[in-house]
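2024-03-11 09:14:02 INFO worker-7 job=invfold-0412 stage=load source=structure_tokens
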């Protein structure tokens, strides 16, 4: 029948209301997931941060231009994808499930090809983790195909309503991108069909037709006709009830959809089933093939009214491990509707994933870690296999024995299951060893190596999760003996006091030890070891804590007592090493069942006479996850209030995006209006002291400068603007004299920015006795306009100095009484060389 005849009949019947009423479908089961393809909302303002309709969390939505979606990569479904920057979650409540029912959760994912960070993608359903994808890599770098990765996870619904949650765990600045999320009923013996019920697109506005260039998740579109998605009762889906949820695909005119099935067993028969219908009063024809076999080839009739879609089940034989299924409508202008496509039969059981152990290491430059890569015995039972690894940055970590391009090939002979490889630390930074070739195995973990210039690694015990149970287990970067492990705020060994830094502490139960090799010390220099400690408030025993370095005792703390509701005990001890490296040991001795707790261990180089400041270079906080925020957690030694605060690796960022910090590798940051303070004691009233600190500002996201204040008790020591140092220029150093008016006072650093997004950076905070300021360098030049003058200048930040001159270094230094002028950011003196014989100039502290 011609299309003209069909349209004429439709026009005639449109005049008969009763017939139309009979043909109107009733409501079908609603889609489980709303806005699954993130098409419902979009913030046009770059970079397109914003809420995501019908989801909680997430960071925003991107189109093809990105920047979080990688330009040049095909968005899997329609024109938009959701993104999750840094460690975050994306959640939606799913209702209408069948308790005990088996479902296939499917989604497409990618990682932003930017910024040096890494991201893991975790999926939870009903609060239970059902999937974890380690170290998601951008598709352009690891796969020669311009599209996202695909994931299908079988889950069982425990109740009728459950929360679906995607969570990202990041190091540095990293972003995961998601698209085309669907949930469909499936069976345990199902062959994976991507987007089988066409729910991954959601409802497409207008006619539902996909525009040229847009993809339909999981399917390749062919033919000259149109393809799109309709919800039940919308557009072409004008009759019948779909079998699964409420969306169907339509094929209008000579058009087709196809996809490749994987995991088949050659020579095995499979059952292909689907639901189908046509637009009311059309005369469409549907042809279905699986590989070279025709499974279905027939004219279609519409079911009409509220009747269920037709269903079909047929069989085909697989001739290879893959087969292409194709659905084709062949009559011009006619429309066929499809839903709930399933393939059932035997599939190759998935092999266990490639096993990497350990999965993380924290090293100092020059140190190495040896890891094992284990493959399942089934993989190499009859043939050899090859695994290829690569370090993304050999300047940070190199693989021993790797090729010049950084790749390392592990060859497994027949029957081999375990190979080892060694990663050697070179310079500061973090990398994750990439698995370029996995021999077809899934990969759920890899090796992450962090190279520290901090003297103490994993100083706050946050780099690895609390082991299961009550917390016994290994601690990254530390060696343990006895009953040692980690606890979070819910104990049981941490059962009193407030955790000093962030969220985790180390514990030793009974007699045992924690130890770490400390490197890069300068023999003869004075160092200051600091740590927080406590005792478990349980079980009736007593415990002592002994601390040593290189076999020499540093502290013996007897009878450690629980702090109760207060802060942990704090201890600071100076030592002068005679070696460049040695073993730092915390050892406990106990009577009965007692436990000691430790946190925020750090070592800084300080002079013995300096006032003790807790966590003065922020090295006791350790490397945080994501972009570095630690709020609302504690900031070892400091009390923080206000906006965002935490630590960043120097020159890694994202807040430490410029300048060169002076002390080790961690820098404290205060984003927005934030203040940090701590009580400092040990002053002598009336004595002069010098406060020094390194300060900088983030080179982003509002025009400089920003503003900060420093107070000690009632004294204001600094109240000034600060601009980014830029590039790798050293942080600005402030040295401020003051006279103590009490034996103890709160030291407060407060960031007071103008309107906008500003961040203050701090490092190496010190207080020494006396005037310890470093005289600034003088700039001296001879000027002759209009008559000879010597121009002597120094930075305006160096206040409280006087200029002196002498005829020789052995003569008496006399003050230069010429007028001190301010020119830009300099103090300037113009001296007349004819007034005296002045060969040398210097700055000295004003009395």
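2024-03-11 09:14:09 INFO worker-7 stage=emit residues=847
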């Amino acid at each position: 029948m011609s299309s003209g005849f069909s349209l004429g009949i439709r026009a005639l019947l449109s005049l008969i209301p009763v017939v139309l009423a009979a043909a109107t479908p009733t409501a079908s089961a609603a889609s489980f997931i709303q806005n699954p393809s993130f098409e419902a909302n979009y913030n046009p303002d770059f970079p397109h941060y914003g809420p995501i309709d019908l989801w909680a969390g997430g960071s925003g939505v991107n189109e093809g231009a990105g920047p979080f979606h990688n330009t040049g990569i095909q968005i899997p479904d329609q024109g938009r994808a959701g993104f999750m920057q840094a460690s975050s979650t994306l959640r939606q409540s799913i209702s209408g499930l069948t308790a005990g029912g088996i479902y296939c959760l499917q989604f497409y994912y990618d990682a932003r090809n930017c910024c040096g960070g890494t991201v893991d993608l975790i999926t939870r359903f009903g609060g239970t983790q059902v999937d974890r994808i380690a170290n998601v890599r951008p598709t352009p770098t690891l796969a020669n195909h311009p599209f996202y990765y695909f994931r299908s996870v079988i889950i069982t619904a425990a109740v009728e309503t459950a929360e679906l949650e995607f969570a990202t765990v990041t190091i540095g600045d990293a972003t995961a991108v998601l698209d085309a999320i669907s949930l469909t009923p499936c069976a345990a013996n199902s062959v994976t069909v991507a987007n089988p019920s066409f729910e991954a697109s959601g409802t497409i506005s207008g006619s539902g037709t996909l525009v040229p260039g847009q993809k339909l998740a999981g399917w390749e579109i062919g033919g000259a006709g149109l393809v799109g998605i309709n919800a039940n009762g919308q557009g072409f889906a004008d009759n019948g009830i779909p079998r699964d949820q409420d969306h169907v695909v339509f094929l209008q005119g000579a058009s087709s959809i196809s996809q490749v099935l994987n995991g088949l067993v050659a020579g095995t028969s499979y059952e292909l089933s689907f639901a189908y219908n046509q637009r009311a009063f059309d005369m469409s024809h549907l042809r279905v093939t699986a590989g070279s076999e025709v499974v279905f080839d027939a004219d279609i009739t519409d079911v009409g009214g509220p009747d269920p879609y037709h269903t079909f089940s047929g069989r085909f034989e697989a001739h290879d491990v893959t087969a292409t299924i194709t659905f084709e409508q062949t009559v011009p202008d006619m429309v066929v509707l499809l839903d709930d496509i399933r393939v059932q039969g035997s599939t190759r059981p998935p092999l266990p994933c490639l096993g990497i152990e350990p999965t993380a290491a924290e090293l100092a430059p020059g140190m190495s870690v040896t890891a094992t890569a284990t493959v399942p015995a089934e993989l190499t039972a009859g043939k050899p296999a090859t695994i290829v690894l690569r370090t993304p940055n050999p300047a940070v970590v190199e693989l021993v024995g790797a090729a010049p391009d950084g790749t390392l090939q592990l060859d497994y002979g027949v029957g081999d299951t375990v190979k080892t490889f060694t990663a050697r630390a070179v310079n500061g930074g973090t990398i994750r060893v990439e698995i370029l070739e996995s021999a077809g195995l899934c990969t759920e973990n890899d090796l992450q190596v962090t190279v520290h210039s901090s003297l103490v690694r994993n100083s706050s015990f946050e780099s690895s999760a609390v082991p299961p149970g009550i917390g016994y287990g290994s601690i990254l970067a530390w060696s343990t003996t006895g009953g040692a492990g980690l606890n979070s705020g819910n104990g049981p060994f941490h059962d009193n006091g407030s955790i000093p830094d962030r969220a985790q502490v180390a514990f030793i139960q009974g007699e045992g030890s924690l130890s770490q090799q400390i490197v890069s010390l300068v023999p003869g220099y004075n160092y200051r070891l600091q740590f927080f400690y406590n005792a478990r408030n349980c079980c009736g025993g007593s415990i002592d804590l002994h601390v040593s370095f290189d076999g020499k005792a540093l502290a013996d703390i007897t009878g450690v007592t629980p702090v109760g509701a207060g802060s942990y005990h704090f201890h600071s001890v100076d030592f002068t090493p005679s070696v460049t490296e040695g073993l730092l040991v915390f050892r406990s001795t106990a009577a009965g069942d007692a436990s000691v707790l430790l946190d925020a261990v750090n070592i800084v180089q300080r002079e013995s006479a300096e006032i003790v400041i807790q966590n003065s270079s922020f090295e006791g906080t350790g490397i945080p996850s994501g972009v570095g925020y630690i709020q609302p957690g504690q900031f070892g030694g400091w009390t923080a209030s206000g906006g965002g605060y935490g630590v960043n690796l120097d020159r890694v960022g994202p807040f430490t995006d410029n300048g060169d910090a002076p002390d080790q590798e961690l820098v404290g940051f205060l984003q927005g209006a934030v203040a940090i303070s701590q009580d400092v004691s040990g002053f002598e009233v009336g004595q002069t002291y010098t406060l020094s600190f390194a300060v900088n500002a983030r080179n982003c996201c509002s025009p400089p400068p920003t503003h900060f204040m420093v107070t000690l008790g009632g004294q204001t020591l600094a109240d000034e603007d600060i601009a980014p140092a830029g590039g790798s220029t050293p942080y600005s150093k402030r040295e401020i004299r003051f006279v103590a008016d009490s034996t103890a006072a709160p030291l407060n650093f407060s960031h007071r920015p103008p309107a906008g997004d500003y961040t203050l950076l701090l490092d190496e905070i010190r207080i020494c006795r006396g005037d310890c300021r470093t005289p600034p360098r003088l700039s001296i030049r001879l000027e002759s306009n209009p008559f000879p003058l010597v121009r002597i200048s120094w930075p305006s930040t160096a206040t409280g100095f006087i200029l002196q001159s002498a005829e020789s270094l052995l003569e008496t230094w006399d003050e230069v009484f010429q007028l001190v002028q301010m020119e830009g950011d300099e103090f300037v003196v113009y001296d007349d060389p004819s007034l005296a014989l002045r060969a040398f100039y210097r700055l000295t502290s004003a009395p």
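2024-03-11 09:14:09 INFO worker-7 stage=report msg="The chain has three helices and 54 strands."
2024-03-11 09:14:10 INFO worker-7 job finished
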